[in-house]
User: Fold Benzoquinone reductase from Phycomyces blakesleeanus.
Amino acid sequence: MPVVYIIFYSLYGHVYTLSESVKQGLESQGITVKVFQVPETLSEDILEKMHAPPKRDIPVITVEELSKADGFLFGIPTRFGTMPAQIKAFLDSTGQLWATGALAGKFVGTFFSTAAQSGGQETTAFTTITYFAHHGMNYVPLGFANANMFDTTEVIGGSPYGSGTVANGDGSRQVSQKEKDIASTQGENFGKIIQTFHKGSKILNGEASEPADKVQTIATETLSVEPPVVTEEKPKPAQESSRSVAIPADSDSPKKSSKCFCM
Ligand SMILES: Cc1cc2nc3c(=O)[nH]c(=O)nc-3n(C[C@H](O)[C@H](O)[C@H](O)COP(=O)(O)O)c2cc1C
Assistant:
């Protein structure tokens, strides 16, 4: 069974709640999931001043543990648009693994929590990607794999870099069902990729005989991707502009059925 570690930091519990949905998605694909928190770097004094509740009874990750997993999903609460010092300190301690290439080729993804909708979930992702690139890991983005990501009727965390929640400045907002669904899709898709790689490796190593074309089908055809729901509208007449391009309504272009600006 492939093994994925969920590794998180969560001072007030939002990232932890999201991790449960990520875990559910992974397990739906037959992945063995182990959940860890990163070591705390703040003193008890400071934690008290921040009104932090007691830590959950979840094992603390060690660097040595990392080489045993097939993939990792990091749960990250944003600090000033970047990852918090606790996650950074842990990643900084992986130098020995980098030197030996121990994490090269492993899969990794990220999910987030911010206080505000525009609080920096995407910039936080960028602060982690350099670590993963230096280790030679395969960063797996979420993309727009869940239709809730196109819903603008309510606050919904997450981005193509990973699922997310919006906690509010006072932490009062809880993870919504739509955010949980997105997180579960992220776990599911990550699990499918890990399973495909795992099965493919076994075939290449002569440990399994499943036909390669079946493995490829799992990779290319079964990822959950829910396109946005778009209504059929008559195209507005093109404005007179040197930059506008009129696309005939009966064009054979494969894009003609989509009214989404991004498709
Ligand atoms: C020092 C500090 C910096 C923060 N910086 C940001 C920020 O840049 N953007 C934002 O939206 N929220 C920011 N927050 C809010 C946290 O992201 C929020 O408390 C966290 O996502 C809640 O997740 P948790 O319940 O898992 O701890 C900050 C919080 C602290 C304590």
The longest helix spans residues 177-204. The radius of gyration is 21 Å. The chain has one domain: 3-219.
